[in-house]
Amino acid sequence: MSRGLFITFEGPEGGGKTTQIHRLVDSLRSQGRDVLPLREPGGTTIGEKIRALLLDLAESPMQIETEALLFLAARRELVQDRILPALQAGRIVICDRFADATLAYQGYGRGMDLAALKALNAFATVGLQPDLTLLLDLPVESGLQRRKMDPADWNRFDAASLAFHQQVRQGYLALAGAEPGRWRVIDAARAADVVAVDVWRAVGEVLAVI
Ligand code: TMP
User: pLDDT tens across 159-184, in order?
Assistant: First the structure.
């Protein structure tokens, strides 16, 4: 059975993940590589419905456990329906957020127990781990400022407190520090072109060893 490559993008709000993923997908495709871009929550019919529920400003307050379980349910669908079959077919899967987001947002951000969330993640993902995770890191104030430029897209998480977003960012940095083999931390406060060079370099290193 061939095994593709699983790359995830993480980070606080407004770090430019979507732009960087588009660029990376284009570059990889121009090399003739078979790439599947996905996002979390989403990427399946059920996942997109769960996404709408989770981001809806009208669904506040929501129990934090409900929130976590909804993300995990969407993840389960994505892993089984899209990610595992693509990896088994040898494709490169690039996912905009994955299991680490639950640790950063629901764990460090909302204060849920990290060990419990890790166990739930393992259950939802059948133990699947990314080969490479890129943390697009930037100060939360500048990220939220960027998000405000797109008011139609403003969601339940954007509306959370600054302290929440700061805990999320610190959580991501702690996760990256604990597993430096898998994570690359990229300064996303710089121009998109400069960030793209670092993204390309990090992906190139992983492609060189598979
Ligand atoms: P996005 O803005 O990157 O599309 O992600 C949607 C929001 O959902 C974002 O604010 C991060 C949040 N989120 C969690 O809180 N937990 C998770 O497990 C995931 C995947 C996303």
Answer: 999 999 999 999 999 999 999 999 99
Residue 1 pLDDT level (bands cut at 50, 70, 90): very low
Report the residue among 150, 157, 158 best suited for mutation to probe ligand 1: largest number of ligand atoms under 8 A from its CB.
157
Residue nearest to atom 7 of ligand 1 (CA): 157
Query: Residue 121 belongs to what domain range?
Result: 5-207
CA 164, distance to chain mean position in Å, is 17
Enter the DSSP assignment of 91. P
User: How many angstroms is it from 62 CA to the middle of ligand 1?
Assistant: 15
CATH number, domain with residue 14: 3.40.50.300
CA of 76 to the centre of ligand 1 (A): 15
pTM value is: 0.97
Domain count, the chain: 1
